[in-house]
Amino acid sequence: MAIRFARMWLLLLVGLVSVGCGDEKVRLEGAGSSFVDPMMQEWAQVYKKEKGIAINYQSKGSGAGIKMMTGQEIDFGCSDAPLNDEQLNECKNVGGAVVHIPLCMGAIVPAYNLPDLPDLIFDGPTLIAIYLGKITKWNDPALAKLNPGRNLPDERITVAFRSDASGSTYILTDYFTQIDKAAWTPGKGTAPKFPIGTGAKGSDGIAGLVRGTRGTIGYVEMIYALKNNISYGRVVNSKGKAITAETKSVTAAAATVELPDDLRYSIVNAPGVEAYPISGTVWAITYVKQGKWGRQLKDFLWWVTHEGQKETENLHYAALPESLVKKIEAKLDSIR
Prior knowledge:
Number of strands: 12
Shape: elongated
Number of helices: 12
Radius of gyration: 23 Å
Oligomer: single chain
CATH topology of the largest domain: D-Maltodextrin-Binding Protein, domain 2
Largest sheet: 9 strands, mixed
């Protein structure tokens, strides 16, 4: 009797352990870029519905996401700026080699609050001068020349910039340095020292500043301007054409760029006639050597860069070119 009772308890314990292991829920953790946050939330929702796997993504800014990824606090970090060599070495010392997986592309737009003057035209030198404090009024001759026939107001320009380490800032300042490196003295980066303006955290923070004060100009990913009903301008590209930010003009920028093997590249100020000049990529950056959810992470990133691309246009992001997807597949194969 005692033996039979002991066997019953043993079978019960084995069953409980088996159920516990089988029911363990996969939950991938990501953080970083606010640029990609609307798209990532949509991907997470669709992926959970299709695959039953939860993706928890926190919009903290590219700099914070990279810091968390480097410290192995999350499974992947999203950034609109590729890691530089110093950051790659830091990662190597912590968890080994990393890979850059492009997820989608988008446009940084000059968003401004002049409701009666939509669709203004800007160019690189003028935007640089605004962000250096050298152009301070909306009716400045440089802006008037770009916008003939528009009744520009004699009002002060209020400048908004990202106060956190931001991939959107990286894309903008990458563009500025390519336009005029000597003039744009703060340099390229996720957190340069802007000489003037008011800082705000996150893309929603910039959108809030612009929306809240007439005469303010800031920079956000296009979806943030659209969802906040904020005007944004066309930007003159390298061929002298004023281009509206839209998926096809971002795709046109991407089509002209040579892709290096490590997939760290820039598509700002691209040479295409129809290319939008302040275009950028969002990367998921992760360690090659993974823990217990490595296969699930690889599967998710494969899905995003393949089936998930059909979700991009609804949120005004540009899908990855097929030539890039082929290179991404090799990078995904290296994750283990």
